[in-house]
Amino acid sequence: MKKNDDLNLVEGLKNLLDEKEGEDIVVLNMENTSLMLDYFVIVTGNSDTHTAALRDYVVKYFKDNERKIKSFDRERGFDWLTVDEGGIIVHIFTKEGREFYNLETLWNECPRV
């Protein structure tokens, strides 16, 4: 049941990020990797303020769905912020950070959801 719950949670998260004008949203299924998690959600914000707001929306979304957050970046002004729910990690990038770290290429064998 958890797998379906996580997929529904990820789909809702993707919709939320889209509503909040997150750019180029990608969800990678990470189940068949050596990492102990199910999904990466990758999104780009258009400014420092926007990336921080996206992070706050993601944190609230997990809390509203009664999911415990293991950790999240609380600061601002970085090219890469994460929110780690355990099975789902959300990566929020600036455009420059996303191009530099290029997670989609690093994990290109993982199917997109």
From TrEMBL:
Assigned GO CC terms: cytoplasm
Keyword annotations: Cytoplasm, Repressor, Translation regulation
Domain of life according to the entry: Bacteria
Pfam families according to UniProt: RsfS
Protein name: Ribosomal silencing factor RsfS
NCBIfam families for the chain: rsfS_iojap_ybeB
Function: Functions as a ribosomal silencing factor. Interacts with ribosomal protein uL14 (rplN), blocking formation of intersubunit bridge B8. Prevents association of the 30S and 50S ribosomal subunits and the formation of functional ribosomes, thus repressing translation.
Cellular compartment(s): Cytoplasm
First-listed, main subcellular location of the protein, grouped into a coarse class: cytoplasm
Any GO molecular function: ribosomal large subunit binding
Record field: transmembrane: none
Family the UniProt entry places it in: Belongs to the Iojap/RsfS family.
InterPro entries: Iojap/RsfS/C7orf30 (IPR004394), NT_sf (IPR043519)
Example GO biological process: cytosolic ribosome assembly
